[in-house]
Amino acid sequence: MKLKIAIAQIDIALGDPKHNQKTVAYYAEKAAEVNADVLVYPEMWNTGYALTELTNLADTNGQDSQLLLSKLAKKYHLNIVGGSVATQQNHKFYNTMFVFDASGQKVSEYNKLHLFGLMNEEKYVSAGSMINTFDLAGIKSAAAICYDIRFPEWLRTMMSVGPQEILYVAAEWPIQRIEQWQIMLQARAIENQTFVVAANRVGRDKNNVFGGRSLIIDPLGRVIQQAGDTQETLLISTIDTDDEKMVRGQIPVFDDRRPELYY
Ligand SMILES: NC(=O)CCC(=O)C(=O)O
Question: Which residues line ligand 1 (CB under 6 A)?
Fold first, then answer.
């Protein structure tokens, strides 16, 4: 099955959800203009890592973000992997991904599982504990948020329920570790024999310069398309999920696993 994927590699204004909502809407329109099937956004696009201001800024139950993403999905008939946003749920803060199908229906909600100490995330944000798998555009999919990609066992857990055919990733990944970003994503693609579609942001905040290089990787780990490290862009590529069936047919990794021996 052929699928046109678009990644919105955007800059994020720190602590300015209204401004960032406009950016998100602008890129949905651009993705619709090229008839994309799926659009992916980066991590924490409503606030950036404005962690000390979450009391004022976090989106209560993700209402504003969900309303916007659902409206955009329906208006442009786009499946949207909504990156993530800072949310407040039951007096706690979370880094939350919402996924909407092209009719505007929510198909998944996921709170980031692994919080990133180097950016003080765990001091302000609570960790999720749920899996993030869903059907989108007729494809079995999973999605992770940024630091989650350093935990191959977690991604394998999600990818082997199925197994899933696409792994989506939303990130705010700093430039100084951008080589690790790419190498780990290629490894995740190879070991899970899956397409990886990964959206990173560009720009800077008070503490970090973010490295872009959003990318789409095939199930053999080859980079199909990659953005640069400084510019906002809409990265577009058409993938064919039949390629994955071919790879899985040749080396049946999922059938050959010995989970009874893993811990
Ligand atoms: N926002 C994040 O989770 C950043 C993860 C990161 O930079 C890493 O090196 O891991």
Answer: 43, 116, 119, 146-147, 150, 172-174, 177
Three-state SS letters, 26-84 = HHHHHHHHCCCCEEECCCCCCCCCCHHHHHHHCEECCHHHHHHHHHHHHHHCCEEECCC
pLDDT tens for the chain, residues 1 to 263: 999 999 999 999 999 999 999 999 999 999 999 999 999 999 999 999 999 999 999 999 999 999 999 999 999 999 999 999 999 999 999 999 999 999 999 999 999 999 999 999 999 999 999 999 999 999 999 999 999 999 999 999 999 888 889 999 999 999 999 999 999 999 999 999 999 999 999 999 999 999 999 999 999 999 999 999 999 999 999 999 888 788 888 999 999 999 999 98
Q: Give the residue numbers marked as catalytic.
A: 43, 112, 146
Output 148-153 pairs: Cβ under 8 A, ≥24 positions apart: 148/112, 148/113, 148/114, 149/181, 149/184, 149/185, 149/188, 149/198, 150/114, 150/184, 151/113, 151/114, 152/187, 152/188, 152/191
For ligand 1, the distance from its centroid to the CA atom of residue 27, given in whole angstroms, is 24
The pTM for the full model equals 0.97
Q: Which domains does the chain have, with CATH numbers?
A: 2-261 (3.60.110.10)
